[in-house]
Amino acid sequence: MIVYDKKMLDNQILVDEADTLYKGGFISKDQKKFVKKELPAFRSQDNILVRIGFLLLGSMLYSSICGAISIIGVSAENAYFQICCYIFAAVGFAGSEILAKQNFHNHGLDDAFILGAILNVGFAIGITTDGYQSVIALFMAVTAIFMYIRYLHLLSMLVFCLAVTVFLFFQMFEFGDIGRVILPFIAMIFVAVFYFVTQKLISKLNKNYYYSGLLLANSFCLVLFYISCNYMIVRELSEELLGTEVKPGTDIPFAFFFYAFTFVVPIVYLIQSLRTKDRIMLWISFLAIGFSIYTIRFYYAVLPIEVALTLGGLVLFAIAYFSIKKLKEKESGLTFKPDRINHSDSILNAEALVVASTFGMKPEVKSQDSPMEFGGGGFSGGGSGESF
Fold it and tell me: Which pLDDT does position 358 carry in this prediction?
């Protein structure tokens, strides 16, 4: 199903590892260049600004092709309008395939055609169904997951997650007020199931080709799970979707559950991330804790903002100080020591030796001068001279 050559994908993984080792100081710049020279990889672009530039350039190319087709088909008037987006989507699919055959991957040009194809599928279905949101979201989700599976396009996985979420929401809206009331609970259950499915798929991966996309979907589930039953989100959506007004002295139904959920879930995330050493979940837990505090303060401002910020800063300082004191001497597990992949001098020579032996390189090693100097000696002498 993957359009790319598996050997090229393996080479890309090795090149990325070499780049990571170089940034961490494990190998030299010459060794990194040697790896890239010996292992041809894709035409990709790591610089985000340059990639955005190529995306804009690809979008202009895509638009010019679609414009040229429209000049020919505009004479058909309404009939062409009904099918034009299908044609534009076909152009996106064809362009994605051509660029993939030329080894463009995460370059910018391929982004324009892949995302353009997904977008035009949504427009085409919208025109055909007179803007039926559920069907549009469903077809965009199917197209996005196809693009990810075939082209390993990470943004397509993000589009898939968003489209599936939108599809679920609009499906629940079709059940009327009942669907809107139970939407937070349905979303919570759906996301939990989706999270464990992605976890299972990650654990069963034989190759790392799909790892990044599954990790993105897994992280998306963590965020959406928290948002689905956050008190502020639920209350504001209740007022917007159901037209209810929460008067002073009253609250939304199941308010106690949503209050508890808003504070318990971030703490569970934090504990689980520390237990499993999951850095992404750790950052999500920090953001969730901050948003939980903002949620309560949005409705119940107990202290003036300057006092709250001062006390919050003092609490964070105390937590940081005592955490550093406790963890700074630990060498493994949860530690305050620098990440070896970013800062390492102690195993630099060992890592370089491993890379050198792997790729057949023979780096020159200069030994340190011995503090003991040996004198003269002849043919087989051990350093003894002719004088006493």
Answer: 45
Tokens of 378: 């002849």
Scanning 242-384, the segments in alpha helix (DSSP H) are 255-276, 279-299, 305-327, 348-359
**Number of C-alpha atoms within 13 angstroms, CB side, residue 202?**
15
Evaluate whether 157 touches 216 at the Cβ level (below 8 Å).
Answer: yes
75-89, 174-188, 328-342 — which is least confidently predicted? Answer: 328-342
Residue with tokens 């996309």: 213
Dist CA 43 CA 328 (whole Å) = 42
Instruction: Answer whether residue 121 shows pLDDT above 60.
Output: yes
pLDDT tens digits for 5-37? 778 777 777 777 777 777 777 777 777 777 777
Neighbours of 270 (CB within 10 A): 17
Number of neighbouring beta carbons within 10 Å of residue 253: 11
| Segment (H or E) for 347 | none
Q: 304-313, long-range: CB within 8 Å, 24+ apart, which pairs?
A: none
- Site of tokens 């919208």: 126
CB 24 within 8 A of CB 343: yes
Euclidean distance between CA atoms 272 and 274, whole angstroms: 5
**CA dist list (Å): 93 to 143, 165, 222, 288:** 10, 24, 32, 38
